[in-house]
Amino acid sequence: MTDQGVTEPGDDLPGKPTFASRTTLSHIMTASDTNLLGTVHGGVIMKLVDDAAGAVAGRHSGGPAVTASMDEMAFLEPVRVGDLVHVSAQCNWTGRSSMEIGVRVMAERWNESTPAQQVGSAYLVFAAVDEDGRPRFVPPVIPETEKDRRRYQEAQIRRTHRLARRRAIKELREQRVAEGLED
Ligand SMILES: CC(C)(COP(=O)(O)OP(=O)(O)OC[C@H]1O[C@@H](n2cnc3c(N)ncnc32)[C@H](O)[C@@H]1OP(=O)(O)O)[C@@H](O)C(=O)NCCC(=O)NCCS
């Protein structure tokens, strides 16, 4: 382990291009996927998002990876029974042991011959882990297109905000404990 808890070695892992682990998972929605309104339950879409992102994280890091967080999950349009849903995921950014995976959810309507419509999107952070569940180094992702480079830069902004938010909440909780305040 390093002083920051990541299993060594790995500092000099060769980079991998974004396209190498890009993945699309497709699924036809069925009646068992619905909520009380008869449209597809958000949790069903989130499971597909986590599955697709997990496949990318495993492929990019070359081994097991666990979901550390999911944020900015947006549901833009309802999905209906019979719709063909495509969940496309790619590695936007890599840290030492973590990867931000961006996911886009598209739906082809079962009764229309129109182009697939975007119905959702999400960003997930996966941590690559060793057989003991400890974080391990990941290969740096190499963004190759302008779109990949933009996504990399935006992922860095999200990373900065996630860390700042976690730190601020941790400090607040420590301060409340120090002041003897209980929930
Ligand atoms: C994710 C996990 C491996 C992190 O372990 P840890 O001991 O906290 O290790 P670290 O603090 O070194 O974090 C490892 C990396 O994950 C990132 N990370 C950890 N928690 C995070 C969070 N909540 N959001 C975003 N990133 C996170 C860290 O920033 C670090 O990134 P870096 O190595 O690229 O700098 C650990 O919390 C875990 O196993 N969680 C359960 C995961 C799981 O079971 N998911 C499935 C849900 S059922």
TrEMBL record:
Domain of life: Bacteria
PROSITE patterns per UniProt: HOTDOG_ACOT
Start and end residues of each HotDog ACOT-type domain: 19-132
Gene Ontology molecular functions: fatty acyl-CoA hydrolase activity
Family: Belongs to the acyl coenzyme A hydrolase family.
Keywords noted in UniProt: Hydrolase
Name by which UniProt lists this protein: Acyl-CoA thioesterase
Listed InterPro entries: Cytosol_ACT, HOTDOG_ACOT, HotDog_dom_sf, Thioestr_dom
Pfam family, one: 4HBT
Cleaved signal peptide residues: none
Enzyme Commission number(s) from the entry: 3.1.2.20
